[in-house]
Amino acid sequence: MPRRFDTHPDTLPRSSSVAIIHPSDLHKELFTDSGAGTLIRRGDAIQKASSLSEFQDLDKIKKALLESQNNLDTEATDAEAVVDRFLEFLKVNPFTAYYDENMSGLAIILPPSADKPMATIASLTITKFGWLSNLAENMWSAIKTDNPSLCWRVSEEDENLVWFFEKADASFKHNGGVLFLLWLRL
């Protein structure tokens, strides 16, 4: 007979996970992930910003961008200088940032303009934990809701390349990267 939770998962911090496992399977799940139980992850809420002043800690933004700068400037050898130039660019240009509280994921989207008919993912940085905890899917859902047409470029060496192919309507391989397109959704 099922028992009630004494503490409801909604009262736990968003980064918490709860596993519901039968006692006879507990020994299998302590050090492995065999899937014997039910795992509930709340995850972090996706937040949005349209100006650098909306971020409480710019150093976290800079650190996240430094960890992965695939779409900032592929020819750069000085990552910190590239990130500094990108932040200066964002000070004077419109953008929307999607991120979680822990900065396990950060996406910078540039809106369509006269010379670019689609919004562009200028940067998408997701930590290993972010990929494993479904943060990428949650961010993608928020990005796609606000931007029905998108383009973005990813290195063909990216370990998550398959995920990007699944999200795109079209792709073009060029100079060590893959250009992805998501068409207008009606």
TrEMBL record:
GO process terms (BP): L-arginine biosynthetic process
GO CC terms: mitochondrial matrix
Record-annotated N-acetyltransferase domain positions: 47-186
UniProtKB keywords: Transferase
Name of a matching Pfam family: NAT
GO MF entries: acetylglutamate kinase activity; N-acetyl-gamma-glutamyl-phosphate reductase activity
Gene3D superfamilies xrefs: 3.40.630.30
Pathway stated in the Swiss-Prot or TrEMBL entry: Amino-acid biosynthesis; L-arginine biosynthesis
Transferase as UniProt keyword: yes
Keyword Transferase appears in the UniProt entry: yes
PANTHER family per the UniProt record, alphabetical: N-ACETYLGLUTAMATE SYNTHASE, N-ACETYLGLUTAMATE SYNTHASE, MITOCHONDRIAL
Protein name in the entry: N-acetyltransferase domain-containing protein
